[in-house]
Amino acid sequence: MGVSQRHISQIENNARNPSEQLLKHICLRFFVNENWLLTGQGEIFTPPDEAVKDLLKTLTARHGERAVVNALHIIMKEHGLAVAAGRPAARADTGDPELDRMIDTLYLLWSGADERLKNWISVQFDIAYPKSVIAEAEKKQKESQQLSAG
C-alpha cells in the first residue's frame, strides 16, 4: 500500500491520523465499509454490489469504459458467466468485430423488447433476409463443409 510499518504503528497507537487517501485505499483494497472504518458503526465490509460498483468506477476512471467492459466480458466468458437484464446473456465471439457488433445489437434489442418491438424486429429481419437468401447461404455453407470434410 506504500505505507511504512512505522507509519501504520503510529496510526494504531493514535500518534498519527491516517490520511483520507490511505483510508480510501484501505476501503477499496479490502472492501471495508468506510463508515465502519471511521466510526465503528455499521457493517465491517462493503456489500458486494457496492464494492463492485466502487471498483468499476475506479477502473473506468483509470482505463476507460470500453476497456473495462471488454475485460469484464473476457473474465465472464472464461468463467462461463454472462448477465444481461437479470438473466443469462449471449455475447457474440465470431472473431469478426463487425459481425459481433451486429449480433450483440440484435440480442440487446430483442432481450429488452416487448411483444410489439419483437414483432417489428422479426418483420425487419425477414425483409432484410428473405427465406431464399437464407436457403442459399445454408446451401453454400453445407457445400463448403462437404468440401473440407471430403
Report on this model:
- By secondary structure, the chain is mainly alpha-helical.
- It has a domain of 46 residues.
- It has eight helices and no strands.
- Helix 4 crosses helix 5.
Describe this protein with a few key phrases.
single chain; 69% helix; mainly alpha; 0% strand; 150 residues
Task: Please describe the biggest sheet, giving its number of strands, its sense, and whether it closes into a barrel.
Answer: none
Sketch the topology as an H/E string, one letter per element.
HHHHHHHH
For the terminal residues, how far apart are their CA atoms? 61 Å
Tell me the number of helical segments per DSSP (H or I, 4 or more residues long).
8
Q: Give the overall silhouette.
A: elongated
Query: Which residues form runs of ≥5 with pLDDT under 50?
Result: none
| Strand runs, count | 0
Q: Which class do the helix and strand fractions yield?
A: mainly alpha
Rg (CA only)? 26 Å
Fraction in beta strands? under 5%
**Overall mean pLDDT score?**
84
